[in-house]
Amino acid sequence: MKFFQTSLGAARNVSEKDDKFLIMGTHDEERLTQELYNFITKYVLCPKCRNPETAVKMEQAKKGVKFTMQCGACGQESNFDEHDRTFTFFRQYYEKHPEEATVAKHAAQAKKEDAVEQPAAEVEVVPVEGAAKKKREKVAKKSDLETSKTDPRKVTAAFMAKGDYNTEKLHSFIIDLKNEAGMNDENIPLILIGAIKEYATKENFFQEVRRHADVLRMITSVRPPQVAGEVIGDRVRAEYEKTNAKIQRYFLFECAKICQDYYKEDTDKLALLIFMLYLEDIVNEASIAAFVTNKKLADKVERVVEVQTKIQKILNWMQPAPTQAAQ
């Protein structure tokens, strides 16, 4: 909030009633979004690999306390711009709370460790009759990736490992793979995020997700065909919105499973991943809100309630300030 205050040249206030920071004055959404990206670029993303898995390193130097950004993915140690006005507040805060200035958990040498792979469980579909048959068929549809004889995630990972592809080629490859296997639309993003997990390591997983953001944006939502002179009806639009909500629900659940497998007890990683997916316009706010309020996840993903609480705080922060405070 200090960054917003200095970059916008505006006063700020704290609303203790609803636990919100308020930036006074009138500011358009585009400007606020740009300033948010500026903050993330300066104080979150690694300057070398653009990965958000960074932490503050605080150590004693000849001229006093030195602050640097330590990247948990590539191990890069970067200096902050000490002439930035925000850095003054930044320094004061961490000098008062040194316990919060920690080195990133995954240093560069962690790349030497092999990621533990867990094969997807196979589901046996047993022919039954009547209502029970319909129920089993529904389960089979949800398990398309697991029941496929040739795992499309591994096939896609092998294609990506060759390196000879661009956004369009990768998108076409995944769509063709999905059509050949007769899968539903909600499986398309699962193929790519699963392939990234196969292809990457846990140290550069975030970096690879961000590198493939263009393709992920294309497959986490579907749009009605545009015909010149025709207006899309509310009913058709509602159907597409329903489909997109389903696609993103499956996608976020898969992301939760991957983070649980990769990062175990570190719930910050999933919260960070979902926030990054939002900033990259891969998932929308409504889908994140649905993820936060989904109580069924507690039985499927360990410690997901902690993640939901953290993401809820981000959603609260994203809500517009009260009208009277923006005058």
Automatic annotation (TrEMBL):
It comes from the Eukaryota. GO terms for biological process: formation of cytoplasmic translation initiation complex. Residues 146-327 form the W2 domain. The keyword NADP does not apply. GO terms for molecular function: eukaryotic initiation factor eIF2 binding; GDP-dissociation inhibitor activity; GTP binding; translation initiation factor activity. PANTHER family: EUKARYOTIC TRANSLATION INITIATION FACTOR, EUKARYOTIC TRANSLATION INITIATION FACTOR 5. This is Translation initiation factor 5. It comes from Strigomonas culicis. The lineage of its organism: Eukaryota, Discoba, Euglenozoa, Kinetoplastea, Metakinetoplastina.
